[in-house]
Amino acid sequence: MAQLIDGKQLSNQVLQEVASEVEQLRAEHDVVPTLAVVLVGEDPASQVYVRNKVKRAKETGMGSIEHRLGTATTQGDLNQLIDQLNNDPQVHGILVQLPLPSHLDEEQVIAAINPAKDVDGFHPVNVGALAAGQASLVPCTPQGCMIMLRQVHPDLSGKNAVVVGRSNIVGKPMAALLLQANCTVTIAHSRTKDIESLCRNADIVIAAAGRMELINADWIRPGATVIDVGINAIEVDGKRKLVGDVAFDSVSEIAGAITPVPGGVGPMTIACLLLNTTRAARRQLA
Ligand code: NAP
């Protein structure tokens, strides 16, 4: 039976580190690291994510500012708000919750954020820095996955890793971080041929396709480490349930280590967002 990598427990450790860094910045520099969260529209999932991020931020002693804008918000209104937050010295991190309503241009919004305050790590300057192996604000979900992987593999050097998914927010930065850690990395996507045998050869499989239980036990080499990023909502007996991209019951019989959904990558993502906010605040001291 696979070792369970407990994202709840591990995220609590990260949040404790964040809380002590918040305390240190306050005591030594009279700075309260502050995260501004911008939510546009009424998407229910986004509302839950924003609520959780703000709640956790408060628990660490960090400052948080919420801007809730109506669905009819224009690009100009949003750019103006971002400009204001970019220029506010009390704000150290800016997060615009995605997805935005379809009339708004996400790329333009991300590019409008000051890269030094881009705690999601999506700005092209931070994306480029990560690709070049330079210090940057790293996207939260892949950063959380790396902390989880290090629990099992303190040294990742030479491991074969397959990342299933090539999105800008998960797959691509995940592959960049694994490469930085000296893994041999394969990125698989919807056009990849014989994805099963690629995964079967891997020491590490990162599932980030957004396809319910795509990866089953036949895809996994005995003893491999499986990180399940996927979040898929299903209904069981009239109740909403979250499942990952990995068929947990069968894969956990064969894998060496596995993350659950929920309680895996999700809590780590929020913890890493707050870690990025303290890092951004410290860098802005200089
Ligand atoms: P996305 O933008 O939809 O990207 C999905 C990727 O998976 C694409 O690259 C796609 O390939 C690939 N893909 C889709 N079906 C596939 C298949 N059958 N075989 C192989 N590859 C396939 O999604 P995302 O934003 O990266 O998110 C992925 C999943 O992670 C979602 O379930 C999302 O909810 C979850 N997520 C979780 C967290 C967390 O904190 N736990 C954070 C972010 C996202 P193409 O590029 O060829 O289309």
Low-confidence stretches: none
Give me the CATH fold name of the largest domain. Answer: Rossmann fold
- CATH homologous superfamily identity of the largest domain: NAD(P)-binding Rossmann-like Domain
Average of pLDDT: 97
Indicate how many domains the architecture comprises: 2
CATH C-level class of the largest domain? Alpha Beta
**Could you tell me the strand content as a percent range?**
15-25%
Instruction: Please write the string of helix (H) and strand (E) elements.
Output: EHEHEHEHHHEHEHEEEEHEH
- The number of distinct β-strands equals 11
Q: How many helix segments?
A: 10
Helical residue percent? 40-55%
Name the overall outline: globular
Strand order of the largest sheet: 1-11-8-7-5-6
CATH architecture of the largest domain: 3-Layer(aba) Sandwich
Structural class: alpha/beta
Catalytic activity: (6R)-5,10-methenyltetrahydrofolate + H2O = (6R)-10-formyltetrahydrofolate + H(+); (6R)-5,10-methylene-5,6,7,8-tetrahydrofolate + NADP(+) = (6R)-5,10-methenyltetrahydrofolate + NADPH
Subunit structure: Homodimer.
GO molecular function: methenyltetrahydrofolate cyclohydrolase activity; methylenetetrahydrofolate dehydrogenase (NADP+) activity
EC number: 1.5.1.5, 3.5.4.9
Description:
- With 286 residues, this protein is of the alpha/beta class.
- Helix content is 43%, strand content 17%.
- It binds NADP nicotinamide-adenine-dinucleotide phosphate.
- The site of NADP nicotinamide-adenine-dinucleotide phosphate (NAP) has 26 residues, from helix 10.
